[in-house]
From TrEMBL, chain A:
It holds the Pfam family TPR_ANAPC2. It comes from Rosa chinensis. This is Anaphase-promoting complex subunit 2. Transmembrane segments: none annotated. The lineage of its organism: Eukaryota, Viridiplantae, Streptophyta, Embryophyta, Tracheophyta. One of its GO terms (biological process) is ubiquitin-dependent protein catabolic process.
UniProtKB/TrEMBL annotation, chain B:
GO terms for cellular component: anaphase-promoting complex. Residues 36-79 form the RING-type domain. This is Anaphase-promoting complex subunit 11. Residues 1-15 form the signal peptide. It holds the Pfam family zf-ANAPC11. GO terms for molecular function: cullin family protein binding; ubiquitin protein ligase activity; zinc ion binding. Pathway: Protein modification; protein ubiquitination. Keywords: Cell cycle, Cell division, Metal-binding, Mitosis, Nucleus, Signal, Ubl conjugation pathway, Zinc, Zinc-finger. PROSITE patterns: ZF_RING_2.
Length: 873, 86
């Protein structure tokens, strides 16, 4: 205290004081101190007030105003430390745990707040005394009260902060968490009602008053207590409001805010997890938003209202509306115009909720896409979240690593990978209509698929084959992907908005939705706007690298299918071809069209020939062998324009004599009708339906001509050595040995070792009973067994064709590598392009070259290290 | 024990070809079994025709050739006066 005297009074002034003055000062000062002491410890007794005022006036008259203030503040501080803070903390000490019990918390807070309120009243008394000291007023017009109250507030906060127990923030957190849960429970059982309308006016006025009487940030002493209209008489909200108010007034403003904010965010996070769940067939975003409205925003609204911070500044807040608030007026149930603070809170909460939901969905994106399109509600949610947060890159990273881990593994079938790829495209194009992120996500899948041998085949099957393509998509079985794409396209064309498009634009848009034949060569400037649409077919063709390869593969598969047809029914092939023409252009599909046309022509010619051929005299129905002729009725033929078909696998075959006779009669008739055209039979191709008649049963089979030729040899001779049988049927012995397995597996023939070790003996089984392989064929002739042609195809595969075509370059490539040591793929490609310009011109794609080179690697002619090809030493 | 075999059908495959000496048309250089540059479908839609000199061409090719000649047309192969083989 001596310090403060010397610092505030100048010593020269002390010298002029008379003996009596000194005496009076000392006397007044000790009386003032005593009065202060009495007042502060008086437990609400303010009766010393007038005395205090007169002591203060006397001391002021000696210029000791600052001494008065400092002493009084010091006394307040000491009293608060003793009666306020330490008592306050003692409430919490009793409990080791954070959850101290709501009532204890309220009691502690009420006690210290009362103490503080009392001290503030005392301070107000001092302020009054200082203000009423007339002599000073004219010179010192400043109001001392703000400064004094600020000092007091500061010492209150410092004392509490200095003695703060470590667990206090956790206690606050616990408290708010508990209240939020309580509120949530109330709201869950308490749907919005409409009976509050008439209270609106009153509350508005209350709010207005409240804002007007609001003084300085932390020190509102007013008793204004507007309740959120949803919680009139609601003890819960009043309690929360009072708690926050009291905590603020004790200087815990930011600690309190942190506590309820983190309680709200934690609670929101739990709620989002809770609502989101693992069911992707329902959208949860709306319920999350509704919940934010119903619980945390109501909580905050009530809180801010209690603290006098709820009313908006009318139009000022409209610029801060949540971008998601479509109709702001009805958005806050029961709140007319949200305050700026509330809107800001809403934005924070929604952002947090969106981010949380987004992270949840991204983590499960792989499963969601497996479930697509059933999971489209979850995709739609994710889309909205990402639009809000803009964190698409999170999706890309996370999904790519899920793909690497779950899909792009040796165990996954090419078909599964392709289907997931297509589902990914379909699902993500909702989120990313421009396809930017899709490009990044698709790249690893495409790269992986390029390394698989059966990729093209699977792609073509998926595109064109209705039976297997969509088997895992519910409700869509029977449709090829191509069919589905086409349907999508048609429906998109139909709903193209009329008003927004000029006719030119509209045409451009329709064109853009068609696949462009060669994206590599397309001018990137030209189509940039039109290309901003995800093109599924284009992304599928992108796996292969070129449309030609895809068409080629399709042609081989089509040929295989057509050559194994026993009728001329090609309706579904025609439909598929039409769709392919739409996407790949008529010219690319020209050869396929001729192939189909051959089938149509064959049907006509076949009817014509059989109607006009001179039938031999005998008229037995059916084709019973044994006598030397068979009826022409059993023969049908597919006549192909072989120049337009893929290379046909030709194998020699001696068909049974009577059939051979039919073939030459047929060819002769063809030559008569179509002269000067003639037929060349591909005797190993086609299908044969026959019935084996045993004594006790009949069995029907649909088989290749070779199988038919083999089994028919057993009609007259029960047992054959493989050598003799191969000669009779006219095929090499290894082919015979391989193909005859079909009849052995069906239990029709038995194989045994002959006298010669490399010669086998095949014998017709007497009865079928002991083979155990005939359970399904107990004499029922309707049972038809179809010869499985696994690994036996009528048409040379695309790889075989390519290998044949590329062989001419093999020497050249090996020569280059001898000279250069090692070369990368594109360098080999470019060199071939540069030097092989004639006979035959090098016209292969990079992918074709790569596939050929990997063949050379597997033949151990080349080696591939770090992207460079070497000669194998 | 004997097995009897009944054939229900035999669906065979054949390729057609023009019964001509050469493989390609001397005018358009395309295969006879293909079609001329103006046609899309081979066979009946783009037939061959023989001249008196026994040279064959796509009908459409030789017709174009004959029509392009101002005077009497000659066979593009042997230069003999062109006559359709009767
Ligand atoms: Zn020609
Ligand atoms: Zn023609
Ligand atoms: Zn001639």
């Amino acid at each position: 205290m001596a310090d403060s005297i010397s610092s505030t009074c100048n010593l020269g002034f002390l010298d002029t004081l008379s003996e009596t003055s000194i005496h009076e000062i000392v006397e007044s000062y000790s009386a003032f101190c005593a009065a202060t002491e009495t007042l502060l410890n008086g437990a609400g007794d303010l009766s010393v007030g007038p005395q205090l005022v007169s002591h203060v006036h006397r001391l002021c008259s000696h210029g000791l105003e600052s001494l008065v203030r400092d002493h009084f503040l010091g006394a307040l501080e000491r009293t608060f430390e003793k009666d306020g803070a330490s008592k306050f903390w003692r409430h919490f000490e009793a409990h080791d745990d954070v959850s101290i019990g709501e009532q204890v918390f309220y009691n502690a807070l009420e006690e210290i707040s009362l103490e503080k309120q009392y001290q503030e009243k005392c301070l107000l008394m001092l302020v009054h005394a200082l203000q009423t000291y007339g002599g000073r007023r004219s010179r010192d017009s400043d109001d001392v009260s703000p400064e004094l109250f600020a000092k007091y507030q500061l010492s209150v906060s410092s004392i509490l902060m200095a003695t703060l127990p470590r667990k206090f923030p956790d206690i606050l957190n616990w408290y708010f968490k508990g209240r939020l849960e309580e509120l949530s429970t109330i709201m869950a059982g308490d749907e919005p009602r409409g009976d509050e309308d008439e209270d609106d006016r009153d509350d508005m006025e209350l709010d207005e008053k409240c804002r007007v009487s609001y003084r300085s940030g932390q020190m509102e002493i007013d008793e204004c207590n507007p309740q959120g209209r949803f919680f009139d008489n609601n003890k819960l909200v009043n309690n929360i409001g009072r708690v926050v108010h009291d905590l603020r007034s004790l200087g815990f403003t930011s600690m309190t805010e942190d506590a309820y904010a983190s309680a709200i965010f934690l609670f929101l996070k739990d709620k989002v997890h809770d609502l989101a769940g693992d069911d992707y067939r329902i959208s949860v975003l709306e319920s999350i938003k509704r919940w934010i409205q119903a619980v945390p925003l109501q909580f905050l609204h009530a809180l801010l209202a209690y603290l006098g911070d709820s009313v908006s500044y009318e139009s000022a807040s409209s610029g801060l509306k949540s971008p998601l608030a479509k109709c702001p007026a009805s958005f806050y149930p029961g709140i007319d115009t949200p305050s700026e603070g509330l809107v800001r809170w809403q934005l924070r909460l929604e952002y947090f909720a969106y981010e949380t939901l987004q992270d949840l969905r991204i983590a499960k994106l792989f499963e969601i896409i497996v479930d697509y399109p059933d999971s489209s509600p979850a995709i739609e949610d994710l889309k909205q979240c990402l639009e809000y947060t803009g964190q698409h890159s999170k999706l890309v990273e996370s999904f790519i690593s899920a793909l690497q881990y779950r899909l792009l593994t040796a165990g996954a079938s090419t078909n599964d990978i392709l289907h997931q790829y297509v589902s990914t495209i379909k699902a993500l194009r909702t989120i990313d209509p421009a396809g930017v992120f899709l490009e990044a996500v698709g790249e690893p899948i495409r790269d992986y698929l390029r390394g698989r041998k059966d990729t093209i085949k699977c792609i073509v099957t998926m595109l064109t084959d209705g039976t297997g393509a969509n088997s895992n998509v519910s409700g869509n079985t029977g449709d090829s992907l191509l069919e589905e794409l086409n349907r999508d396209e048609e429906s998109q064309e139909n709903i193209a908005p009329e008003d927004d498009f000029h006719t030119d634009d509209k045409q451009a848009w329709i064109n853009a939705s068609r696949w462009e034949p060669d994206p590599v060569e397309a001018d990137p400037l030209k189509g940039s706007r039109n290309r901003r649409k995800v093109d599924i077919l284009g992304m599928i063709v992108g796996i292969i690298g070129s449309q030609d390869q895809l068409v080629n593969e399709y042609r081989v598969m089509l040929a295989e299918k057509l050559l194994n047809k026993s009728d001329y029914d090609i309706d579904s092939e025609i439909r598929t071809l039409e769709l392919l023409k739409i996407h790949f252009g008529e010219n690319s599909m020209q050869k396929c069209e001729i192939m189909l046309n051959d089938l149509i022509g064959s049907k006509r010619t076949n009817t014509n020939i059989k109607a006009t051929i001179a039938q031999p005299s005998h008229t037995d129905a059916g084709g019973e062998l044994g006598d030397n002729r068979v009826s022409m009725d059993i023969l049908d033929a597919t006549i192909i324009s072989s120049n337009f078909w893929p290379p046909i696998q030709e194998e020699s075959l001696n068909v049974p004599g009577p059939v051979d006779q039919l073939l030459s009669d047929y060819a002769k008739r063809f030559n008569e009708i179509k002269t000067p055209r003639k037929l060349l039979w591909k005797k190993n191709l086609g299908t044969v339906k026959l019935e084996l008649q045993f004594e006790d049963r009949e069995m029907q089979f649909m088989v290749a001509p070779l199988h038919a030729a083999i089994v028919m040899q057993f009609q007259d001779q029960k047992s054959w050595t493989s050598k003799d049988l191969a000669a009779a049927v006219g095929v090499p012995i290894d082919i015979l040995n391989r193909r005859i397995n079909f009849w052995i597996s069906k239990g029709i023939l038995a194989e045994s070792l002959g006298e010669d070790t490399d010669d086998h003996v095949f014998t017709l089984m007497e009865g079928m009973i002991d083979t155990g392989k005939n359970t399904a064929n107990d004499g029922n002739c309707e049972d038809l067994i179809v010869g499985d042609e696994e690994g036996e195809s009528s048409v040379a595969s695309v790889e075989d064709q390519l290998r044949k075509e590329m062989t001419v370059y093999e020497k050249f490539i090996l020569g280059m590598l001898t000279n250069f040591g090692s070369m990368a793929l594109d360098r080999i490609h470019n060199t071939l392009k540069m030097f092989c310009i004639a006979d035959p011109t090098y016209d292969k794609t990079l992918q074709q070259l790569q596939s050929f080179l990997s063949g050379l690697v597997s033949e151990e002619k080349l080696e591939l290290r770090d992207g460079m090809y070497f000669l194998k030493k | 024990m004997k097995v009897k075999i009944l054939l229900f059908w035999w669906h065979a495959v054949a390729a057609w070809t023009w019964d001509a000496q050469d493989e390609t048309c001397g005018i358009c250089r395309m295969a006879f079994d293909g079609c001329c540059p103006d046609c899309k479908l081979p066979g009946d839609d783009c037939p061959l025709i023989w001249g008196a000199c026994n040279h064959a061409f796509h009908l459409h090719c030789i017709l174009k050739w004959v029509n392009s000649q101002t005077s009497q047309a000659h066979c593009p192969m042997c230069r003999r006066e062109w006559q359709f083989k009767g």
